[in-house]
Amino acid sequence: MEVIILPSSKEVGALAADAIEALVRNKSNAVIGLATGSSPLPIYDELARRHDEEGLNFTQVRGFALDEYVGLPVGHYESYREVIRREFTNRVDVAPENVHGPDGASENITAACQQYEDAIVAAGGIDLQILGVGTNGHIGFNEPGSSLASRTRIKTLAEQTRQDNARFFDNIDQVPHHVVTQGLGTIMDARHLVLVATGAGKADAVRDFVEGPVSASCPGSILQFHPRVTVIVDEAAAAKLAGAATYRHAYDNKPVWQGL
Ligand code: GLP
Fold it and tell me: Hey, which of 113, 116, 156, 202 would disulfide with 237, CB 3.0 to 4.6 Å?
């Protein structure tokens, strides 16, 4: 696991965008795993800027969302499919038919989850998965207690997560209790995981998943088993990392040819 500590969310977003740009320039039909929440927004802003100003091209890129609420009507403003469309894919030239998300409105959620797994495999797997982390250590919507081998399935949100996400809705009663999410096993199949976290509110979660024991109690800790993880955090989110000096030293002395 590579941990990179940068001054602010703008630099965090720009560096994650560098990884995506390098991938897309090397593989025009790359498969990108798309995350929602506030953390990835600077990445999407930067990619949209590079698209507008530098001709970064996404026409053949395929995208797969990490997760989705269950029970929101199709097209709901806060459904993750809409958020991803609004915040990223509509701002660049990703073809709408190349953007996929778990179907939280299906009448047969179990079958829809399996179809989503199959669609990811049919696309050749995810080249780069963008991730954030919840204050309780969740990734995607894999709440504490999630199987470390889980696949795409329905989950019940922790109350903490509903409270954290209430800011996107008029009030907490509107936040669904259920979601469908790529499982931890699904996420671990991606070839490169890029997790971004910013702000003091993420400092405990970052410490726990980077340096704590691997445990279903902190779902993000499963990333310690992945061969290629880039964790990009700002100073505030890095504040509780015991190994911060080591991570800074490694990054400062990283061979340039390695890239991200
Ligand atoms: C949400 C999403 C996650 C996200 C996390 C943190 O509930 N399901 O994918 O990483 O919580 O969100 P934020 O970046 O807004 O703090």
Answer: 202
Is position 232 within any domain? yes
Amino acid present at 90: N
DSSP H helices, 28-108, are: 41-54, 80-84
In tens, the pLDDT along 176-199 reads 999 999 999 999 999 999 999 999
Q: Whose CA is nearest to atom 13 of ligand 1?
A: 37
Please answer whether residues 47 and 17 qualify as being in contact, where contact means their C-beta atoms are separated by less than 8 angstroms. Answer: yes
Angle between helices 41-54 and 9-26 (to 10 degrees): 50
Residue 20 confidence (pLDDT) above 90: yes
Q: List the Cα angle 243/221/244 in 5-degree steps.
A: 10
Which atom, in ligand 1's list, is nearest to the CA of 157? 7
Task: Specify the pLDDT at position 11.
Answer: 98
Alpha carbon 105 to chain centroid, angstroms: 21
pTM above threshold 0.85: yes
Answer yes or no: is 258 within a domain. no
Question: pLDDT per residue over 139-188, tens digit each?
Answer: 999 999 999 999 999 999 999 899 999 999 999 999 999 999 999 999 99
- Ligand 1, residue 165: give the atom nearest the CA: 7
Residues with CB under 6 A from ligand 1: 35-39, 66-67, 132-134, 140-141, 161, 165
Identify whether 221 is part of a domain: yes
**Pseudo-torsion of CA 253, 30, 63, 153, nearest 10°?**
-80
**The pLDDT value given to residue 259:** 87
